[in-house]
């Protein structure tokens, strides 16, 4: 029996739900994405991390074309990124000297580009898999994970970060990382929508996962344990150097004097930590200053760890290279200290120019010969050696990459991250950044020292709790003690593989289930 197109559509969509107009759907989706920012630091209204994706889920449930679903998902993602990452405006306009109108256009283009992740999520949800909470949560985690590597990645605005201090859910972090938290949260959000539609079967699964997470929180398993050595006394130096002065040649000596003065009262502590690029010149240009600091550190039995641009002149081949490779690095010096860490995850256009080699074939491009990029550090670097401990390092926004931090944390006793968030002024960016460090501490069961130029400088324990915190935008020293810990969390052992396996299995089953349902309807 041959079926007409109308009959076929009726059998595939026997009860077509009512749809809002496309224009209204786009507006609601954009606003739903925009409000998500208030679920993260510094606002911490975590229920919005459920409300925001629940609205998108509800908008996508009515039968619709793939094109319409993609547009609605794109609108949600654009709202999410235009508002959630608006802190980029400060660096683009205030410090990048870009006109306000052009900076806003650049933010809008960024939002459109990053919104594609949710656009394709919605398209796959509409066309490929069954429309139910498990597949929606699996697709959500898939797009979050993809942001950690596609085109070097921009791993920001994950749902799981909203629950960093909600320990009834963040207890999943040391087991399967931030993506496991995102999965449960999205599953719960979508299941609530189904419950309101009187189809609450999926709530059983969501509640079961919440019970498991809460039980872990109550049982409080110790995935790692204290090393058994005395805690280290540490001093984190916050220089509060204005961003518009930081890299001026005429201000370099003043910068060094500021950090030296702040440090003068801290000699004798176990470890002194300076922020990212706190020495604003190559190590070859600051030899005298560095030698004086090392001399003082050794005389007072202090370890000194600092951020500094590092030029590797030994690797320079004048016949092949324009200039020696240089790195955004962390170096451990002074008493009982050794090691150099070179940043692995560089900021596109901030620390390197993508496809820089193509500029060589454009001889008429003004200034192309003057463009220089940082080099990437190896992903197989040894930890810093500090007072008989292994110290893992992360520079600036590479701490936002769960897997990179996990690899750096293996075989370490505690972790540090240094940054210069002055680029983002008084926006939410630095506070979101701090929240990510808390999640990395949870995932790896390690204490974190975080030294920044303008804040937020903090000491975070192995449970992701902020133990000490310095005020932002003040020239100050943060003192405290950190505990060395040993042992590996399940996340450190297996990384993202367990959650990726689960979502792959769910998507496969959902895809097969949708095909089977379609065949059954056609056979009626």
UniProtKB/TrEMBL annotation:
Entry keywords, A to Z: Acyltransferase, Cell membrane, Membrane, Transferase, Transmembrane, Transmembrane helix
Enzyme class label: transferase
E.C. number(s) listed in UniProt: 2.3.1.269
Protein name per the record: Apolipoprotein N-acyltransferase
Gene3D superfamilies in alphabetical order: Carbon-nitrogen hydrolase
Organism classification: Bacteria, Pseudomonadati, Pseudomonadota, Gammaproteobacteria, Moraxellales
Keyword Transmembrane included in the entry's annotation: yes
Cited SUPFAM superfamilies: Carbon-nitrogen hydrolase
Organism whose genome encodes this protein: Psychrobacter saeujeotis
């Amino acid at each position: 029996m041959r079926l007409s197109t109308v009959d076929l559509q009726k059998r595939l969509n026997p009860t077509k739900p009512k749809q809002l107009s496309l224009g209204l759907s786009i507006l609601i989706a954009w606003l739903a994405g925009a409000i998500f920012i208030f679920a993260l630091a510094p606002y911490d209204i975590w229920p919005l991390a459920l409300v925001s994706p629940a609205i998108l889920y509800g908008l996508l449930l009515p039968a619709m074309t793939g094109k319409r679903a993609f547009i609605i998902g794109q609108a949600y993602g654009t709202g999410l990124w235009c508002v959630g990452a608006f802190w980029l405006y400060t660096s683009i306009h205030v410090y990048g000297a870009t006109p306000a109108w052009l900076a806003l256009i650049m933010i809008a283009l960024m939002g459109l580009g990053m919104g594609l992740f949710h656009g394709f999520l919605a398209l796959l949800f509409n066309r490929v898999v069954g429309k139910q909470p498990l597949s929606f949560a699996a697709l959500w985690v898939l797009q979050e994970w993809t942001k950690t590597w596609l085109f070097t990645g921009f791993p920001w605005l994950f749902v799981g970060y909203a629950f960093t201090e909600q320990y009834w859910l963040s207890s999943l972090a040391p087991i399967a990382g931030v993506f496991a938290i995102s999965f449960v949260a999205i599953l719960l959000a979508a299941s609530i929508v189904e419950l309101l539609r009187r189809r609450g079967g999926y709530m059983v699964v969501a509640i079961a996962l919440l019970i498991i997470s809460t039980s872990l929180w109550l049982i409080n398993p110790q995935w790692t344990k204290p090393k058994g050595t005395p805690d280290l006394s540490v001093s984190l130096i916050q220089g509060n150097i204005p961003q518009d002065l930081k890299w001026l040649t005429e201000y370099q000596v003043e910068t060094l004097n500021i950090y030296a003065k702040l440090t003068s009262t801290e000699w004798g502590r176990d470890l002194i930590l300076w922020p990212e690029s706190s020495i604003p010149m190559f190590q070859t240009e600051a030899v005298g200053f560095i030698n004086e600091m090392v001399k003082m550190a050794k005389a007072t039995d202090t370890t000194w760890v600092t951020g500094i641009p590092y030029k590797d002149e030994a690797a320079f081949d004048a016949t092949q290279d324009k200039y020696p490779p240089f790195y955004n690095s962390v170096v451990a010096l002074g008493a009982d200290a050794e090691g150099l860490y070179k940043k692995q995850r560089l900021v596109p256009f901030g620390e390197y120019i993508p496809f820089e080699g193509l500029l060589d074939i454009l001889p008429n491009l003004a200034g192309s010969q003057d463009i220089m990029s940082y080099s990437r550090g190896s992903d197989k670097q040894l930890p810093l050696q500090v007072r008989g401990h292994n110290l893992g390092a992360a520079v600036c926004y590479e701490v936002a990459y769960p897997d990179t931090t996990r690899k750096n944390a293996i075989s370490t006793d505690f972790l540090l991250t240094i940054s210069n968030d002055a680029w983002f002024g008084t926006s939410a960016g630095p506070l979101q950044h701090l929240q990510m460090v808390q999640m990395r501490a949870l995932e790896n069961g390690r204490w974190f020292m975080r030294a920044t130029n303008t804040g937020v400088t903090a000491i975070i324990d192995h449970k992701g709790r902020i133990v000490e915190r310095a005020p932002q935008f003040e020239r100050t020293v943060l003192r405290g003690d950190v505990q060395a810990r040993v042992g590996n969390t399940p996340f450190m052992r297996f990384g993202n593989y367990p959650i990726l396996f689960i979502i792959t299995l769910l998507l496969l089953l959902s895809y097969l289930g949708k095909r089977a349902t379609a065949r059954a309807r056609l056979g009626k």
